[in-house]
Design brief:
The protein is of the alpha/beta class. About 45% of the residues lie in helices and about 20% in strands. The N and C termini lie far apart (about 45 Å).
């Protein structure tokens, strides 16, 4: 059971992130580009969307494949919103939501033809996530995932210290490519998300929401601190986006489907 502070944070996360088109950097164009790099799939592939959020990419995947999609997240506010969208789009026969931590995924090994994850696998640590996804993929199956990376090897002190605290496991793109290979995947393709993917459906609508949320949660120091953290993160990205970004990695588990 959550205490009062945890309940407030959970509530404001729903009011903030749940109101955004996407819960992290990404775009419809980037999802389509990554999917175009995925190799041949079965006619009706079995797909897992890890950290689906409110389903921006989930619904796109339903349009790009004729398969069945399991959309996994730990937050009720995200899954409830996605479930509403699934119903309104008439996709209840093809998209199933499940509330489950990615740290505790209990699907049988070699279940999926395609695993998708945008901006979420860092929660497990990228190496742990790669190894788990490889177990869950059928031989010949594909993984498409974004991971925040250093784009340059000389980050200024301010941005280096931020990421050391926020995500100490951040690596360069080249180091993550090596990690993909070390985890026994074949690299199929990769690209860096453009800066517009950070702003158009994530930071810009978030910035527009902040004033009303500060007013609504003026009584809660915890909520105000969360809003301030997001404001600082946006300001940091405005200054230092040349040094870090999200890389889309598309890779394949060797073998035949």
């Amino acid at each position: 059971m959550m205490n009062d502070s945890e309940a407030v944070i959970y509530e404001i996360m729903g009011d903030l992130y749940g109101a955004l088109p996407r819960q992290g950097p990404g775009s419809a164009e980037c999802t389509r580009k990554a999917f175009s790099m995925v190799g041949p799939l079965p006619e009706r592939p079995y797909v897992l969307d890890v950290g689906c959020g409110t389903g921006g990419q989930t619904l796109q995947l339903a349009g790009l494949t004729d398969g069945h999609i399991i959309a996994l997240d730990v937050f009720d506010w995200a899954l409830d919103r996605l479930s509403e969208r699934v119903v309104s789009c008439g996709l209840t026969d093809r998209i199933r939501t499940t509330k489950q931590s990615m740290m505790e995924m209990d699907f049988p090994d070699e279940s999926f033809d395609l695993i998708w994850s945008e901006g979420a696998l860092y929660i497990m640590g990228f190496e742990n996530a790669l190894r788990k996804c490889r177990e869950l993929l059928k031989p010949g199956g594909f993984l498409a995932a974004t991971e925040v990376c250093w784009l340059r090897s000389d980050p200024p002190k301010e941005v280096r210290e931020f990421w050391q605290q926020a995500y100490p496991d951040i690596k360069t793109v080249a180091d993550n490519v090596q990690l993909v290979n070390d985890c026994e995947f074949e690299m199929v393709g990769q690209f860096t998300l453009p800066d517009s993917a950070w702003w158009d459906e994530y930071y810009t609508p978030m910035r527009e929401l902040l004033p009303s949320l500060r007013e609504r949660y003026a009584h809660s120091s915890e909520a105000l601190a969360l809003l301030a953290e997001n404001e600082a993160e946006m300001a940091l990205h405005e200054k230092y986006s040349a040094w870090y970004g999200y890389e889309f990695f598309i890779c394949r588990r060797p073998g035949n489907m």
